[in-house]
Amino acid sequence: MSGLAKDITPPSSGAPMVKAEGVHKSFGLAHILKGIDLEVLPREVFCLIGPSGSGKSTFLRCINHLEKISAGRLYVDGHLVGYRQHGDKLYELKEKEVAAQRRDIGMVFQRFNLFPHMTALENVMEAPVQVKRESKAVARERAQRLLDRVGLGDRTGHYPAQLSGGQQQRVAIARALAMQPKLMLFDEPTSALDPELVGEVLDVMRDLAEDGMTMIVVTHEMGFAREVGDSLVFMDDGVVVESGHPRDVLTNPQHDRTKSFLSKVL
Ligand code: ADP
Ligand code: MG
Fold first, then answer.
1. Cα dist from 112 to 74, 140, 155, 240, 241, whole Å
2. pLDDT of residue 86
């Protein structure tokens, strides 16, 4: 399963694909992200682990404009997320500019969120046609190719309800790729799957990684993190507790909180 590279947009500069500087996020009085600093390099598979409620999803949602950060700076591919900087002043981007930034980021959720009334092919074609105003012929050709790549070339006419959870999640990945993102965010993409279906989704993610896609993966699949990940961050209670190469962090954690978490999931 190679050749996804064709659908991967190279980063526009050598800068980090994602850079967070002192990122905070509060919901009312609840202080959720408490100063996140990290860098995700182009082509990197960046794994994010941590206990439930530590702020992992919130962080991904900030990258993808689903939430607005409360303080700090967040950059994607060298561009400030949601703002334009002019001198030392910041201006909020207009809706259209936000939409343009979001277009470059693909996101895959725990729940597949496919459109139930559309076939697999139509699901994958939808955004390029509706958002990018691409011709149906071009969108269909790419959708077909992407579904082939995720191993579903023979399921293009199936509706979500006719597909297994693993197949639906692979359609969801193909759908995100159809927008030719430069960054893919995965939020526990296999957590809702029956155990026997996890492998087929991780295999697709591994292929994507081999083709050079920049990926941030929130996961409890430590095997995947160890084998495919380039970096790993352990987050707890809204802070980065520990980071490094996945093998190092997983086999030789330095902090008690990391040790305690890993002893529960490994
Ligand atoms: P994780 O993905 O690591 O499990 P989340 O980012 O989903 O953690 O959540 C972190 C904390 O933020 C949780 O306590 C959650 O209840 C809270 N939270 C998330 N979204 C909202 C929201 N929209 N409003 C209020 N609290 C929220
Ligand atoms: Mg979460």
1. 27, 21, 16, 28, 30
2. 87
